[in-house]
What we know:
By secondary structure, the protein is mostly helical. It has ten helices and no strands. The protein has helices at residues 3-44, 49-77, 89-109, 114-127, 130-140, 143-166, 178-190, 204-209, 215-246, 249-262.
Amino acid sequence: MSIRCRLGVCALLVAFAAPVSAQEAAQEDETQRYRGEAIDRLIDSHDFTLIAGAGRLFLKQSAIKAADRLIGQWGREAGLGMDWDSRQPAWQQARGVLLERAERLLLRRFDSQIWVRDAWSAYLGAAFSGEEADHIADHFATEGGREQRRLMDWFLGEFVLFNYTFTERIQYDMPGAQEELRRLQRAAQERLPREDVHFTTRFEDTLAFIGRDPGLKYWKMLAIPLLGEILRRIDSMAREIETEMQSGRSEVQPLIDGFAAAS
């Protein structure tokens, strides 16, 4: 066969193959769209209030500690003596300036809970098909499934709080973070697991959900890798807050200089 003939055959094959490839691409797009919608529906069924509330309490306390650490450091660099401490009005003003910067960052980057959704979506997208995500979302829409989902959300939020309590990074009597503690306590009280929930044979699908895939696979994902990612993201936000406050030194310096001049 001549080169020209071979090229003609190739052109003919490409002509026939092109519509198939376009069809496959359209089917893949549809599959991904369905998968994305199923994942979004599953994420929407969860309540992130306790996770975010525990994280918010830790971050507020972390911000207070970081602010005092920075103010003390800058005071020492300015040659201030032992009188420069948190009892001084200038120190309190400086803390207020830094905490305001931290609060703006939290409102913008944390309180929207987009960071939780992003983490959830990444892990679901890596491990679950659209059919699996759809099946779990359908289950959570049932009576027994809603109760299971509420228990999952409760235990995840409880573990976030336990992590920061056990590692002594939350102090329940710290001044300045009492409002965050009260909000978390109110949210937890509203979501306390009901004592009268009994997963009897009336909820056969509910009983089976946690003992086989995709339910078992989902709970394992939540309890181990996703929970670890949530903690990493909260810890990363604490570092971001300190960096943000460090950039506010020029706003705090006049207060330090004023105290030095008056001493």
